[in-house]
Write a sequence for this structure.
């Protein structure tokens, strides 16, 4: 009876894998993998399909597939967290971060706080292909991208993003990312200054004379569903070449000039042909301090499975920041993949040469 039950489960898995965008739990079973393969954070099915079309059906390269997949998400404004028209900063402007890494050459191109150019992943590719640099930022990055042929300048705001910004302003500019500052006397939204009374802080960090009641808090940074922060994607092509990349408009209401983990190799994504790749999403300001994707790939290099490496990368952050929200997926060079998360339920999407369409895997946290 046990053998028959196992056989029935395998048959059911075979049937279900032919349906588009099927949601399954990666903690229950792993499908048979056949390269090439595309993996992406979240249920960004259209982005995975676009990358898979290029790398699986057309036989294209892993690097080109990353650009194809991430640019699809930019165009579709996936979850409002990728591309133009999302996550306005404190001034109401949408800026973009993106990164691409070639796991064969270990070359990286990235842009941060990109303004007035919609094609963030294309701009990152230009940095990788046509400069000796790794990261360009701000208006200078935009000028660079336009000089090499990307359309611009472009307005990255939309009616929706401006309405979100207006609502935030009318709500007293909360939540925000400031701490241990007080606004001036004319507006609860700043400009801010460090209180002169902060020097009276005691050993527990408590400020006297009631100043602590005025201090802005970043305890609620609106990192969660609806603000996933990024698409992070990894691809292995039919020659075994591995690439990874990200694209994001960052965190809503960020302080202007902020660059998050989406532009940082090893934080939001990492790739090495010798080992595998990783993608990350979540509270980038915390996660980038730990380089979780670099950690996951190095853990696999030392013999951990993708599941063990992903969990270890998340646990390292959780031990120091127990309330952070984030997730990673890890994939080895053979295409075996797994995910781990903390503070939310995480999904990642996969399509390999065996699959008729993209499949969404669901990962639950060990501890909320």
């Amino acid at each position: 009876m046990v053998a028959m039950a196992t056989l029935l489960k395998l048959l059911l898995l075979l049937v279900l894998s032919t349906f588009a965008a099927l949601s399954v739990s990666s903690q229950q079973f792993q499908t048979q993998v056949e390269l090439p393969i595309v993996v992406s954070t979240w249920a960004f099915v259209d982005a995975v399909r676009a990358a898979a079309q290029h790398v699986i059906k057309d036989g294209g390269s892993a690097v080109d597939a990353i650009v194809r997949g991430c640019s699809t998400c930019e165009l579709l404004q996936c979850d409002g967290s990728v591309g133009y028209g999302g996550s306005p900063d404190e001034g109401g402007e949408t800026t973009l971060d993106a990164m691409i890494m070639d796991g064969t050459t270990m070359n990286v191109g990235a842009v941060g706080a990109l303004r007035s150019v919609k094609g963030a992943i294309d701009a990152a590719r230009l940095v990788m292909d046509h400069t000796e640099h790794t990261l360009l930022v701000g208006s200078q990055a935009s000028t660079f991208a336009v000089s090499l042929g990307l359309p611009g300048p472009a307005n990255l705001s939309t009616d929706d993003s401006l309405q979100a910004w207006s609502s935030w302003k009318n709500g007293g500019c909360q939540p925000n990312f400031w701490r241990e500052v007080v606004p001036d006397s004319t507006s609860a939204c700043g400009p801010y200054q460090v209180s002169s009374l902060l020097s009276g802080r005691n050993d527990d960090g408590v400020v006297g004379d009631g100043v602590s009641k005025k201090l802005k808090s970043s305890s609620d940074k609106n990192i969660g569903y609806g603000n996933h922060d990024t698409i992070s994607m990894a691809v292995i092509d039919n020659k075994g070449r591995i690439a990874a990349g990200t694209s994001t408009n960052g965190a809503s209401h960020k302080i202007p000039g902020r660059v998050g983990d989406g532009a940082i190799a090893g934080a939001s994504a990492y790739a090495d042909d010798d080992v595998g790749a990783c993608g990350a999403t979540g509270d980038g300001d915390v996660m980038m301090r730990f380089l979780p994707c670099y950690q996951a790939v190095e853990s696999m290099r030392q013999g951990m499975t993708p599941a063990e490496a992903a969990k270890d990368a998340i646990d390292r952050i959780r031990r120091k920041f127990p309330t952070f929200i984030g997730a990673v997926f890890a994939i080895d060079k053979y295409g075996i993949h797994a995910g781990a998360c903390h503070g939310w339920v995480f999904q990642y999407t996969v399509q390999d040469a065996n699959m008729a369409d993209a499949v969404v895997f669901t990962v639950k946290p060990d501890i909320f």
Observations:
- The two ends are 37 Å apart (CA to CA).
- The longest strand covers residues 96-102.
